[in-house]
Design a protein that fits this description.
There is one protein chain. The chain is an alpha+beta fold. The protein has 2 domains: 42 residues, no CATH class; 36 residues. The chain is 51% helix and 13% strand. The protein is built from 3 helices and 4 strands. It has a two-stranded parallel ribbon with strand order 1-2. The chain has a two-stranded antiparallel ribbon with strand order 3-4. A hairpin with a 5-residue loop joins strand 3 and strand 4. The protein is elongated.
């Protein structure tokens, strides 16, 4: 039995339960990509990232950038004399 057939059987069995179940397929090959949407809600086509230090560093960097952006946005908010909230615009 091919992997496509096996994933189809699993997809159909999950749908038959009548319950909302998120199905993720793990094929590890690029040739799964064209069929992914027909077989599952999401799919992957590559190996695990074994560079944990790099992945963690990137994740932390993105998180810090987002936090800083939110903090700066909040700093830009201020209350005018008439009580309206407004955003300070750079000159």
């Amino acid at each position: 039995m091919t992997a496509f057939r096996q994933y189809s059987l699993m997809r159909d069995a999950l749908k038959a339960t009548g319950r909302p179940i998120y199905f993720n397929l793990c094929g590890w090959h690029a040739w799964y990509a064209p069929m992914g949407a027909a077989l599952a809600h999401s799919w992957r086509t590559g190996q695990d990232d074994s560079n944990w230090a790099g992945s963690t560093s990137l994740s932390l960097s993105l998180s810090l950038s987002l936090s800083l952006s939110l903090y700066l946005s909040l700093l830009m908010l201020h209350e005018n004399e008439d009580g309206r909230d407004d955003i300070k615009r750079p000159l």
